[in-house]
Design a protein that fits this description.
Length: 106
């Protein structure tokens, strides 16, 4: 069950980083600020649940890896940020690292 919480925590991290980007255009939006805070709290709560069964270092690395990969992809797909092939190669390396951590978990 820890890995389910960990995947959810990573997805919520992508949500709050995306909301952070939206806040740059509408910093006084109360709704966006509330959504941002709720997503951060939910992400950390899921991470906290995850590390009850997933090693802390693995959990943190996977959480940040999912957040980094997801945020780069959201930036490229929805915010017209650059996604050159070399950037995708490095994103792929993060994914390989996350998979490796899962496979090596005791």
């Amino acid at each position: 069950m820890g890995w389910v919480f960990l995947l959810l925590a990573g997805a919520l991290e992508v949500g709050f980083t995306t909301t952070l980007r939206l806040l740059l255009k509408a910093p006084s939006s109360i709704a966006l600020n509330v959504i941002f805070v709720v997503l951060i709290i939910a992400s950390f709560a899921c991470l906290q649940q995850a590390v009850k069964t997933v090693p802390l270092g693995t959990g943190y690395a996977v959480w940040t890896g999912i957040g980094a990969v997801g945020t780069v992809l959201v930036g490229g797909l929805f915010f017209n940020e650059s996604l050159p092939p070399i950037r995708l190669v490095f994103i792929g390396l993060i994914i390989v690292g996350v998979i490796g951590l899962k496979l090596l978990e005791h």
